[in-house]
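User: quick one, sequence for these tokens?
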């Protein structure tokens, strides 16, 4: 009998089942490396294609900009109209003369909050430290720190500060600001009450909002009238065509509309009056001493008072806080948000420059959204003094800043008859070789040109554009308290929560004789359309950037620089 054929087909019932399933499993597992291999090849191809596409756009944008500069429509120059008359006046009980000034302030804020809640806005949720309440050590400290700003104590002969009446001009530009208005306006009312209602003028210009902002402004105007605060609050229905207008020229125009009462100051038409101390009836005009410009931010009264305090304490031309946003930001990072620890980044990097002329953090950084928002600041400065003061949350000198909130000397904005220079916000004179910078940076350049060179960054004034960030422990511990790892623990522990500074005066005071002014400042010009900001692309002598100078003696040889006036 011949042996069985090893290749002889067996009946179907005799075939084992496991080899078939085993082969399927083998094929399934084998497909995973293939998929990974395909992905590893496709992803770099996609990334490289995207990069070359962007570079092509950039190259085309640069060629187009130099050979055929964009043609803009004229900036909108509307003045708007007052909105106060569109809503009812506050009831008489709110401002009854039987009440104390503090009670009147409380009643005004309560009535405004009631009206906003009726409209559908949420009640206030940001807890700010009390300034005058003596129920805690913190508020007692704040009252003592800022007492020289309050009219009833400003004339104290023992005060080291100027005793003459001070006028505070508070200016804002708003657009679709419903989310921040309840808290922002409550803060402004508190500050006006503390500084003296007759010493404050509030000016707001809004246009194009569709979220009900004009109505909210009207109620706020009624609140200011009830409190006795002079104000110029106007709204315009015009919607800005940002695609066809020079953005910087238009923003400058809007800021100038808000500042018109200062520009047009005359003894016969002053924006501010000082009530006679004894009778409260005789009133005489006073010059504005400070211009406070505020973005649509979340802040507390102590933030505003700290900037005013530091302007006097440091003898400064301008004092700024810092504005922060949550990171990472942008579509490419959105999917990572749930996996990353909370982090915030300094926002207004385009305007702010250190005393060595650098931005506070790298302007272009592929992984910037993942970096520590505190440690990355003052990245390039060779003088460690600025970094030390920054990480200790102590005021430090800078060349320029804005950062959502700034207190400026009012004098440069006043007409020459009042000892001023009639400064206005503007765009860059690019035809004369000036950097096409932000209107907020150019105002610093103009200040420097007339000797107003003492600009101070106040780290503890940390503001945000939403409530969650302002209340966050990250902002509180890392920024306001100078909570950088490695700091002296005792130094951190003696800081009060939200108190802008509890540093000793000698530690806090800037020695201006030791501050060296920058010779040149990095220029990042404003461009229209898609572009990739890589410093070497800004070439010396181009018609677009004729003001940009390269200092090849520095280690950063390809940084675009502009000369200081």
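Assistant:
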């Amino acid at each position: 009998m011949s042996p069985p054929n090893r290749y002889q087909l067996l009946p179907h019932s005799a075939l084992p089942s496991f080899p078939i399933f085993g082969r399927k499993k083998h094929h399934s597992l084998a497909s995973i490396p293939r998929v990974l291999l395909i992905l590893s090849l496709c992803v770099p191809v996609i990334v490289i294609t995207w990069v070359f596409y962007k570079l092509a756009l950039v190259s085309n944008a640069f060629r187009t900009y130099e050979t055929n500069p964009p043609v803009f429509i004229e900036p909108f120059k509307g003045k708007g109209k007052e909105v106060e008359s569109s809503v009812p006046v506050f009831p008489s009980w709110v401002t009854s003369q039987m009440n104390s000034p503090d009670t009147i302030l409380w009643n005004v804020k309560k009535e405004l909050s009631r009206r906003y809640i009726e409209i559908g806005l949420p009640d206030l949720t940001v807890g700010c430290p009390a300034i005058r309440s003596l129920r805690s050590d913190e508020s007692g400290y704040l009252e003592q720190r800022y007492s020289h700003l309050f009219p009833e104590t400003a004339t104290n002969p023992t005060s080291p500060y100027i005793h003459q009446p001070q006028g505070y001009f508070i200016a804002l530009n708003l657009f679709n600001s419903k989310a921040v208005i309840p808290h922002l306006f409550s803060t402004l009312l508190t500050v006006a009450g503390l500084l003296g209602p007759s010493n404050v003028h509030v000016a707001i210009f809004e246009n194009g909002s569709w979220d009900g902002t004009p109505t909210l402004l009207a109620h706020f105007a009624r609140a200011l009238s009830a409190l006795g605060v002079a104000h110029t609050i106007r709204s315009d229905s015009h919607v800005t065509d940002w695609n066809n207008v020079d953005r910087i020229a238009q923003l400058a125009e809007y800021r100038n509309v808000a500042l018109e009462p200062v520009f047009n100051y005359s003894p016969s038409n002053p924006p501010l009056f000082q009530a006679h101390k004894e009778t409260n009836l005789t009133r005489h005009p006073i010059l504005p001493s400070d211009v406070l410009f505020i973005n649509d931010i979340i802040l507390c009264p102590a933030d505003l008072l700290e900037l005013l305090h530091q302007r006097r304490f440091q003898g400064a031309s301008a004092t700024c806080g810092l504005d922060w946003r949550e990171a990472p930001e942008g579509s490419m990072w959105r999917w990572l948000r749930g996996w990353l620890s909370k982090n915030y980044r300094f926002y207004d990097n385009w305007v702010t420059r250190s005393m060595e002329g650098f931005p506070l953090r790298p302007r272009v950084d592929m992984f910037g959204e993942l970096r520590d928002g505190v440690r990355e600041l003052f990245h390039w400065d060779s003088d460690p003094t600025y970094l030390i003061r920054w990480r200790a949350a102590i005021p430090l000198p800078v060349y320029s800043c804005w950062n959502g909130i700034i207190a400026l000397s009012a004098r440069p904005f006043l007409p020459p008859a009042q000892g001023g220079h009639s400064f206005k916000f503007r765009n860059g004179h690019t035809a004369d070789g000036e950097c096409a910078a932000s209107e907020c940076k150019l105002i610093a350049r103009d200040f420097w040109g007339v000797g107003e060179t003492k600009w101070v960054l106040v780290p503890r004034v940390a503001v945000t554009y939403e409530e969650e960030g302002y209340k966050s422990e990250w902002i509180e511990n890392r920024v306001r308290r100078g909570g950088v790892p490695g700091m002296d623990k005792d130094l951190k522990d003696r800081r009060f929560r939200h108190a802008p500074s509890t540093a000793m005066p000698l530690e806090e005071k800037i020695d201006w004789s030791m501050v060296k002014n920058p010779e040149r400042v990095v220029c990042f010009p404003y461009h229209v359309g898609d572009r990739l900001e890589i410093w070497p692309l800004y070439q010396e002598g181009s018609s677009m950037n004729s003001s940009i100078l390269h200092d090849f003696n520095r280690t950063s040889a390809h940084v675009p620089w502009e000369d200081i006036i």
